[in-house]
Every structure is written in C-alpha cells, then in structure tokens.
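A.,

Following up on our hallway conversation. Structure tokens first:
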C-alpha cells in the first residue's frame, strides 16, 4: 500500500549556500510534526554544500544543470511536490521547532488565505526583525515589514503578502495563478505572486509562532541585486497594478526610480539601476501581454490591502492588520477536566517559592519551573523539588534571559504538551487553594465566553498597597476602575499582571508569545493590549485570590505620616520607562484613556524618585534614559 502523501512540501532552492544549508536542514529535522517532505533544488552549485549534507529520509534532491534562479527553482520543486501546502524556505533561514506546525494550523484556521507568512528574526541579532510580511505601496514599492526594528510579537494578522524566504502557499492557489514568474529570476517574485493572488480574491496572514532566523543577503548594494530589484519592481507594477491606480501613481513611481538612479550616481550603483530601468522598458511588450492575461482573471483591485501611509513607507514599517473575526476562527471547547499547565519563572527565589509550587502542583496537571540562573544553592534545592514531583519539569537557564524569554520557554512547552489552559505565576505569588477552580467557574458563567482570552484573579498583599480593582475600558476612550471584590466579575479589562493570569492555549496560539526584547516590566501589559487588539477579552474574577508581592517597599514620611512606597532600583526604573514608552507608541490609538492614565503614573514616578527616594540622581537618570531608549525603538 503506497504511503500517504505528505501534508506539506518544503521547497528549498540552493545556490552556493555553504554551511547554511546544513543548518537549515538540521532545523527541519527538529520540527514538531513529521508529515512533510523536502524538495531541494541545487541550482548548479560548485561549493560542495549539497554533497556535504546528510541524506535524510524526507529529502529529495533535484539537480538543475544551470542556475535558473529562485523563481524557476521553486516552480521546478513545486512540480515534484506531493503536499497540499507548498512551503518555500531559503537555505539561510533556520526554522524554530514549531514553525511548520504553526504555519499549517494558521492555514487551517484561514481557508480564505492563499499564503501564511513567517516571523523572520535576524540571525545575527534575534531581538531585531528581518521582516514581518511584505507591505506593498500603490506606487510600486515593497519592503520587509519592520526590517531592522525591535522584534515585538504581533497577533495573527492580515498582511499584503509573505516574504518567500519562509512562507506557506496553498497549492491550489499557487497553481491557479501560475506560481512564480520565472523571468524575474530573483527579487520581487514573491511580491508579484502576492499581488496576483490578491487580485483573484485571496488573503494573506502572518502567524506569530511560525518563527525563523534569517541570515539574508550581505550584498544589498551589489550590481546584481540593484539590477534585479529595480527591474522586477517595475515589472511587478506594470503586470499587476489596477489600471486607474497605476495611472495615478505612475509619476510617483517614476520619480522614485529616477531618485534611486541619482542617489546611486552619488553613492555607486546608479549605472546598474539605470540599466535595469532600460531593460524593463525594452521588455514592455511582453510585460503588457502578461498584464492582459492577469487582468482577465482579476476579480478585485487589491488596493485596500496595500500600504497607503507615506510615513510607514519611509520608515519601512510593519503593516499587519487585525482580523476582525479571529476569535470566531477558534474552536473553543470546555472540557470537563481541562488540561492545565502552570509556568513559573524564578530568579534567586526565597522560601515563598515552595508555597507557590505546592499550590500550583495541587491545582494543575503539570508545572514548568523556569529558573533564570539562580545561585548553585538555589538550583540544587530546585532540582530536589523537581526530582520529588513527577509532574514538575525544571528548565535551568545558564544566564538570566529575563522574565519574558523564560515565560516563552514554559509557554512553548505547555503548547507542545497540549494544554487547554496555561497559568502564569511569579516565584513569590501564591494562589489560593481554589484559585484555578474559581477562575474557570467564573469563565463558564460568562455570556460570550468564546471571546475571553485571559482570566485574572483578585490580588492581595501583606502591605496592603495592591488595590483590589481591574482597569477596564470598552471603547479605549473610557477608563473605569472595576472593583475586584468577592462575587464581582469585571469585563473588558485593559491589562492583567502576568502572575495569576490563566490563558486559553488556543488564544495564545494566535496572539503570540511574550515580548522577549522587553526583558521584564510591561511584558504583561504589552501582551494584554495585543490580546485586546486581536479581539479577545480580559476578565477579572473577584472570587479567585492571589497573594502577590509587587516590587520593594521603602518607608518614608509624607505630610507628616509614615507611609510605605513601592520602589525599584535604578536599572529596573530604566526598563520600566523604556518599555512603557514602547507600549504607548504601539497602542496609544487603541487605548488613549489608559495611555493618558499611564503618562500620569510616569510623572508621579518621577516626582516620587525626586522627592522621597534614596539614590535620587541615579534613579532620575535611569528614568530619563529609559524614556529616550523607548522613543528610539
């Protein structure tokens, strides 16, 4: 009996790929699903890279007698493919273990999407983006969204099209429009394909857990790159742009093309650009014949999916748009005995961690403890705890990766384990014995619970500084203090602190991980606002209680009274204010009332540090340094 065809065919076109090719295939061998094949097209390489790779069972090698380019190479591989999904992958793109699973899951959630884009991180600096989808402007310019910018996750969103360095294409859509245009050779062939798919009515989606690290070209100003990028940009525009928009914006495109030639004459490369423009003009008859064929099958203009903001174009920004019905695309199920995994992050914890672990182990089927480089004595104690409990998994980091990155380690393990819900805890936050049950009972009692993504308990602390309320907002312009008292349910929360938050796993799949580049502070706020942007709700359950400790406390005299003020060290102050500015920049348009409230809180923090705290100079310098760093990126 013949073997069932693979679900996905991964297409790799290699040319002088060196050691990157072996690393790319090793990453595929570590994927969390195995129903795939890899078709490797060797474009007449001479560097020995193809000969050096192991012979994997899932690998098929196709040799081309000459270098036919990226576009034709992928089409050649696609003709041999057996999968329902065609996944293009560059030899210098290294997939994280859950990459393929995330792409296929997103394709199944979005049957109206012809393509699924990956999150591309810079291999040299994973805190920086290599790109989040390819925006396309109506004057013919395309770019990798956010390239070089800070890597902050986006929820599953709509983009114009994917970068083919790491992208999934629905086979039926790919074949219906003829695949890549082979005369492009390389560059802009993925933008041209995205435009053609858009013109026949397909969408494109980026999904947050499909992550690759990409090396990318180190010769962006070479004559080869300038020629193909310049020529193919013109071809893409002439072939696919709707007639009226093409006529209106053609002067803008021509002006930008000439500006590129003039700038090239000053910096070098002007000759290559000019030659490429002449080449595009000489081939105008063939291009217009292709345009006519494309126009005959076009059903929509695709103008609404293009990036119209000149500022975003100049900044090479991300254009990822929320999907209005995203919550409805999840299949929520309420299991009688849901699988719950707790994720706890520790760094030099005190004895309270034992109480946290006891409470988590009693209420959750599995506990993942991620330790961020605590001292040897602490680590020995944690190993003893893990050895004594079969449902406790210990991850030991050799260095302090920060709260967000450590949480992501635990979240990924919980997702792979198939958890229904994930509970986040700090190493000093102790859940009440019935906290998880109370949270789930509260969720089950809600109308519209399918749109609820996060449940938050009522917080209390020994010092009495934590106020029992949850900030909420229905429109973003209103802001209310919802009292978290027994029996209360507060809906439309703006944010919830991470510790004690109970997350739906399927919501996490589409909202994405924590922002690792934040390190600590405002990680939970950024995640909460991203969750809201994706259409999900944060709900506070007053019957569920978490005893939490927030920061350090410093006693001082205010108006003749001794009071305890919450405080942080200078380095934490810098991170707090850096990250809060980053959050303001991303979400001010959606929750302006909360941003105004938080600006007031920031000013109060400046006043508090200047008037009441010790080491005032260092703390004030840290605060203003954080503000500047937040505005820079």
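Then the amino acids I'd put at each of the 633 positions:
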């Amino acid at each position: 009996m013949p073997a069932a065809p693979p679900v996905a065919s991964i297409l790799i076109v290699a040319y002088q790929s060196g050691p990157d090719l072996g690393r790319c295939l090793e990453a595929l061998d570590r994927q969390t699903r195995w129903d795939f094949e890899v078709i490797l097209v060797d474009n007449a390489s001479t560097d020995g890279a193809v000969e050096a790779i192991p012979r994997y069972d899932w690998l098929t090698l196709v040799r081309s007698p000459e270098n036919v380019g990226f576009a034709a190479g992928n089409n050649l591989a696609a003709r041999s493919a057996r999968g329902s999904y065609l996944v293009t992958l560059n030899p210098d793109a290294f997939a994280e273990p859950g990459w393929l699973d995330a792409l296929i899951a997103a394709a199944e959630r979005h049957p109206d999407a012809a393509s699924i884009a990956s999150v591309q991180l810079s291999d040299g600096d994973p805190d920086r983006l290599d790109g989040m989808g390819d925006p396309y402007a109506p004057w013919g310019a395309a770019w990798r969204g956010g390239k070089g910018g800070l890597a902050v996750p986006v929820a599953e969103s709509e983009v114009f099209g994917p970068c083919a360095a790491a992208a999934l294409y629905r086979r039926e859509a790919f074949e219906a429009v003829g695949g890549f245009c082979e005369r492009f050779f390389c560059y802009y062939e993925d933008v041209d394909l995205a435009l053609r798919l858009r013109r026949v009515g397909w969408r494109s989606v980026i999904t947050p857990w499909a992550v690759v690290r990409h090396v990318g070209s180190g010769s962006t100003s070479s004559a080869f790159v300038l020629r193909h990028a310049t020529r193919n940009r013109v071809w893409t525009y002439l072939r696919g742009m709707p007639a009226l928009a093409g006529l209106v914006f053609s002067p803008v495109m021509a002006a930008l093309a000439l500006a590129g030639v003039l700038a090239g004459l000053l910096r070098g490369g002007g000759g290559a650009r000019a030659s490429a423009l002449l080449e595009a003009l000489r081939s105008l008859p063939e291009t217009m014949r292709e345009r006519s064929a494309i126009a005959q099958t076009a059903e929509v203009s695709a103008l609404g999916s293009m990036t119209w903001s000149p500022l975003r174009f100049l900044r090479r920004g991300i254009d990822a748009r929320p999907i209005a019905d995203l919550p409805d695309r999840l299949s929520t199920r309420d299991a009688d005995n849901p699988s719950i995994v707790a994720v706890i992050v520790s760094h030099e914890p005190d004895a309270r961690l034992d109480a946290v672990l006891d409470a988590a182990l009693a209420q959750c089927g599995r506990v993942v403890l991620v330790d961020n480089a605590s001292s040897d004595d602490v680590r020995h104690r944690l190993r003893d705890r893990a050895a004594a409990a079969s449902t406790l998994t210990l991850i030991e980091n050799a260095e302090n990766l920060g709260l967000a990155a450590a949480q992501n380690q635990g979240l990924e393990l919980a997702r792979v384990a198939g958890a229904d819900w994930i509970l986040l805890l700090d190493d000093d936050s102790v859940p009440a014995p019935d906290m998880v049950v109370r949270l789930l009972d509260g969720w089950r009692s809600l109308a519209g619970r399918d749109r609820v993504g996060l449940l938050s308990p009522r917080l209390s602390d020994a010092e009495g500084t934590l106020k029992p309320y949850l900030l909420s907002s229905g429109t973003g312009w209103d802001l209310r203090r919802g009292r978290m008292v027994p029996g209360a349910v507060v809906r439309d929360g703006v944010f919830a602190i991470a510790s004690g938050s109970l997350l739906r796993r399927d919501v996490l799949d589409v909202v994405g991980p924590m922002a690792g580049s934040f390190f600590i502070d405002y990680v939970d706020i950024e995640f909460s606002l991203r969750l809201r942007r994706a259409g999900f709700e944060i709900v506070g359950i007053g019957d569920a209680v978490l005893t939490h400790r927030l920061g350090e406390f410093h006693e001082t005299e205010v108006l003749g009274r001794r009071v305890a003020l919450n405080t942080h060290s200078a380095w934490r102050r810098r991170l707090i204010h850096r990250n809060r500015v980053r959050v303001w920049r991303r979400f001010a348009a959606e929750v302006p009332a909360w941003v105004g409230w938080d600006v007031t809180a920031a000013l109060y923090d400046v006043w508090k540090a200047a008037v009441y705290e010790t080491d005032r100079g260092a703390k004030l310098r840290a605060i203003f340094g954080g503000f500047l760093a937040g505005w820079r990126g």
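DSSP finds 20 helices and 24 strands in the chain. Curious whether your intuition agrees with the design.

B.
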